[in-house]
Each structure stands twice: as structure tokens, then as C-alpha cells.
Request: fold
Amino acid sequence: MVRRDEGVDVARGLATVAMIVWHTTDGFLPIAERSGPFFFVLSFLGKLPLASFLLLAGVGIALAQERGVAKEKIARRGAELVLLAYALSAFYLLIEWVAAGRVVGSMNELLRSDVLHVIGLSIVVVSLVGRQARIAIAIGAPVVSVLLNPVTVNDGAPLFALFVDVPDVTVLPLLPLVSWTAMGALLAPYRRARWLFLGAPVAAFAYVSMNAVHGELGGVITRGHPAVLFNVLDLGARATVVLAVGIALAPTLSRFAREALLLFGRRSLLAYAFHLPLCFGGAAIFSRTLARNEQAIATIAVILITLAFCATRELAGESLRARS
Reply:
């Protein structure tokens, strides 16, 4: 069995918990309750998972290559993840049809580029290039995104939606988000360095700069707005702190917390696929009807249900391997 880096898995587990917390908030909390310090903390947590998952995917690429895994094999795994993402989109759309008792949604919902698509495609790109190209991607992807979006934002096709913004199809395109995966691959050798915590002041600087640029230029912050350059730096720096916290926390956690976060870290994809229908759409167990205290209880419930599902799936896999 391949030995995993527990600190990286704990970091991925923290990102998974933050993801579930935000999705239950977005899915269950009424619009009228979305204000004040309570919601500010939840929305802050909601900004951590995407960049963290992409950065940690880059760390995973580097660690796999350190173990001698061929870059083609890693890239194939990324391509498989893109195909799985489309399959999940079809499955979620089917759930909506069953819940509604009729055909709902559109082809754009089936073809849209979302989180798993961009993670898979980023793995393909970053795994196939070397260090110098990764530096160029980490720095250049946001710049290219700003330069391309004025041209592409008003025209495109579902195929292009994987790479740049296409109206009504793209949710999360490769550009500029692949920057975080390249950053993770570059940071992997230094993952235990204390200076990774400097991501906190870097994020603060980038956040202030983003708002200053937006205030000066106005308009809506899209991936073609110059302010997005600082937004990418801000969220990437926050993800670096998540990595540093995960590695620092791993040896200090209680047994239950450690095992729970490690399980979420190993099974983050399964946790994503399982919990999402519980929070959104026709299969959601609640729908923006809960008070804050009720939403907090529902969040804990979804976390525990998802954890139990991941544990059951892992035990079943171990049982099958033992029999073979």
C-alpha cells in the first residue's frame, strides 16, 4: 500500500468539512438570515475549499511523481475525473427529473464546467509539464484569463467552457484556476515549512488590493476583470494556509478528529458526490427554510451522514480486497 502524507490528507479533510459547511449554508439558510458576523464566518469558510482542493491536487501530483508514478498515469487519472464529472452532472440532472416528475433543466446544465471538471483538467495539464512550465502557469494563467475573457465571454461552445468562461455553461473554467494546481505542485517540497503560514498576510494584502482595483475601475468582477489577478492570489494564499494548518494539526488531533479528517481527505471526491444532492435541488433534505440554529444542526447532521457513508464505502472496499 502506498504511504500517504497524513498532513496533506488532514488539509484536504479540512477543505471537505468547509465545503459541506458552506453548501449546507447555501442550501438551507434563508436569504433573510444571510447577514452579520455569523454569515460572514460561513462565507469566509465557503471561499476556502475550491482553491484548497486545486492546490492540494497539485501537491498530490508532485508527491506521486516523487514516488515514481509516471506523468502519463497521473494525467490519465485527471482525464478520468473529467469524464466522471460529466457522468455526475447527468446523474444529478436525472435526480432533478425524478424529483420534479418531468424533464427539467437544460443541456447547458449537463455540459457545464464545474469543480470536478476543472480539478481533473488541471491535473492533466500540470502533471504533463515540468517545473519551469508550472511557474509560468502559476503566474501566467490569471493574466491570460484577463486577456482572453473580453474576447471569449460573449461567445463560445460547451467544449470551450472547460477552458474559459462561456455564458450559461461555465461555472469554473481552467483559466485562471489551474494557477492553484501549479502552485501546489511547486510548494509540495516545502509543505512542512513554517513560512507557508505567511500565506495569511499575503491573502490580506491581495484582498485589500483586489477591492482597491475594483473600486478604481468599477464594474463586475468577472474572470476578465483586472481585479481577478489579486483574487487568484488571495484565494491561493488562503489555500496555502489550509495546507500549513493541516500539516501542523495532523499530529496533535484527538483520535476521532484525526481519523475523521483523514477519511474525508482520502475520500474527498466521494464526500463531494454524496453530500451535494442533500443540499441542493429536488433531493435536498431542506430548502432555505431553516433558522440559524436549525441550520447549524443540519450542517452537523450532513457532515456525520457523509462521514458515515465514506466510512461504509471504505470498509466495503477493504472487505472486497481481503476476499480477492
